[in-house]
Amino acid sequence: MKFIVYNVRDDEIPFIEKWGKDHGIEVKYTTTTLNQETVEEAAGFDGISCLQTIQYSAELFESFKRLGIKYLSLRNVGVDNIDLPAAKANGVKITNVPAYSPESIAEFAVMMSLYLSRKVGYMRQQLDQKHEFHFSPNFMGRLISEQTVGVIGTGRIGQAAIKLFKGLGAKVIAYDKYPLKNTDNSFVYAKSLEQIYQESDIISIHMPATDDNYHQFNHEVFEQMKDTAILINTARGSIVDTDDLIFALQSGEIAGAGIDTIENESADLQDSRSTKKVNDPDVLKMALMPNVLITPHSAFHTSEAVKNMIDISLGNLETMVNGKTPKDLVD
Ligand code: NAD
Ligand code: COI
């Protein structure tokens, strides 16, 4: 049995090597992104482990079939970028890692909320751009405990975020298309999405990208939000209309945004050894705004998460190659 792991970063290598040694399985790794050309490298391997936010296309799965590869094990949660019917049609079984560390993403959302609530971007801008180091009225912030936090999506990450926001004393209202039947009473579900938009000081998005939430956050929604509100998106870029967000931030429809995921992320994002300069005009625009914290889809990135992503994804691959049903099968 032998596996190939794509999109590897240097911080993953010790975990991959240890897993291979502990399980007596040959595991080759490469920093290459998986695509139509690079899939040829997988010829002769029993399965692929991968982590990327660009599309896994129908053509790619046709190549899997041609190369006799039946198993793709994702090291991440989201499956919105996969042509699942094409995978099925080409006999490819897929697993993900649904809970490698929900707390990692939840903490990141809280960190972004604190950064923006305490105006750290304005402090950085004064020092980095003007080389000035003194008090400013622009730095007056707000306590999280004074704020109402609207959490959209009360799954693994949303629930972890609620716990952290509650710990800081926030009032939490939540929305989920499929609400939990039993909650621990630490939060209440809002009557509607409109209530979330209108009453929240901070909105934190924790749902998957689906066809029905494409550009859910658009001009009409920003108009409904408080002009003091902060939007945090650590979920998927397609949920927020970037042009409308930039307009809302510049016109004062909302006060700030924490953007870990932006629509149309490029293949370069996954290349941890890249020295290419970013050329996305929206990223460059937001990078200069003191009321925005924009990060390269890195909310997941903690040592706990990386270890679990490797161990669980390679474990899923081993289970599948052994002809057993893994618990993380994606249907
Ligand atoms: P989860 O499946 O545990 O929870 C998602 C919740 O969203 C569910 O309760 C579901 O009912 C709800 N939901 C689905 N569609 C909805 C809709 N249209 N409106 C409202 N609620 C809806 O998933 P999770 O582990 O909490 O992850 C959530 C998302 O976070 C993932 O799908 C992924 O896109 C993103 N994510 C980002 C990072 C990062 O590094 N930035 C890391 C991991 C996951
Ligand atoms: C996920 O796990 O879904 C993420 O968004 C993390 C990313 C490295 C793909």
Q: How would you describe the overall organization of this protein?
A:
By secondary structure, the chain is an alpha/beta fold. It folds into two domains: 2-100 and 302-321, 3-Layer(aba) Sandwich (Rossmann fold), CATH 3.40.50.720; 102-294, NAD(P)-binding Rossmann-like Domain (Rossmann fold), CATH 3.40.50.720. 35% of the residues lie in helices and 14% in strands. The chain contains eleven helices and twelve strands. It has helices spanning 13-23, 58-67, 84-89, 102-117, 120-130, 156-167, 193-199, 219-224, 242-251, 281-287, 303-321; strands spanning 2-5, 26-29, 47-50, 71-74, 93-95, 148-152, 171-175, 188-189, 202-205, 230-233, 256-259, 292-294. The chain has a seven-stranded parallel β-sheet with strand order 8-7-6-9-10-11-12, sandwiched between helices. The chain has a five-stranded parallel β-sheet with strand order 2-1-3-4-5, with helices on one face. Strand 1 (2-5), helix 1 (13-23) and strand 2 (26-29) form a beta-alpha-beta unit. Helix 4 (102-117) crosses helix 6. It is globular, with a radius of gyration of 21 Å. The two termini are 25 Å apart. Bound molecules: nicotinamide-adenine-dinucleotide and 2-OXO-4-methylpentanoic acid. Residues 110-299 form the D-isomer specific 2-hydroxyacid dehydrogenase NAD-binding domain. Residues 5-330 form the D-isomer specific 2-hydroxyacid dehydrogenase catalytic domain. InterPro entries: D-isomer_2_OHA_DH_cat_dom, D-isomer_DH_CS, D-isomer_DH_CS1, D-isomer_DH_NAD-bd, D-LDH-like, NAD(P)-bd_dom_sf. Its EC number is 1.1.1.28. Keywords: NAD, Oxidoreductase.
